Amino acid sequence: METKTKKREGKKSRGISAGIVILASLIMAEALFYLVFGQNRHFQGAPADGYIWLLDGGEKLHPDNLIGTVYRGGFVVPIIITLLFTVIILSVERFFALGKAKGKGNLINFVYDVKAELKKGNIAAAEALCAKQKGSVAAIVDAGLKKYREMETASIPKEQKIEEIKAEIEEATALELPSMQQNLPIIATISTLGTLMGLFGTVLGMIKSFAALGNAGAVDSVALSVGISEALVNTANGIATGALAIICYSFFSGKIDNMTYAIDEMGFALTQTYAETHTS
Hints:
mainly alpha, rod-shaped
């Protein structure tokens, strides 16, 4: 059993590391923030070329467009962009990883065909379908079929044989499921963290805006409106990031649930078939 577990673990593919994705996303976000959003052309009264963060007095210039307004959102902006890039990259990675786990053909048709072969007692044909389908679901079903064959010649009570088949499928599922769920907790965390970081940036921006107005003495409606718009940009970016993370998490969780249901159905079909077609 230990040898079999190690063999399966060796076959089990791991997706891209979330740590690497987050680091790469942070580098891209910082580059986008300073080298694109921070260009002078996005600010009123600035020289045509160069970057606002290198310009003396540049912090006093008002944004000329939305990109400049986003830049004025402060250090929270690249953090939110990092979270956004992380969601996008991990979602693309999960899309291909779960597609590979599902296998080549239609999963519903695969389950139907394997069950049909089981009813006929044609275990070899069912194994051939698994080899053709490939993927994690087929690997789990194939493990159950091999145990099914093994139990046909085993000299133990029938009830114990059925339990052995169930245990084999559960073990195979436990080995494959973590690879299917990899990186989804990160996406789920970002669904909340993105919104919170947006609100954090907004609060900081509002504090800075009202502090500047208080120090100036007289109320400047233009400065106040610009400051508020800069602060609210963080809220918009954070909500958009959180919403995208929720959509992606729900989508991929649904795909995993569908595969889990197929595995459960195949496990029930295997044990039920053995119970009906074998007397011992």
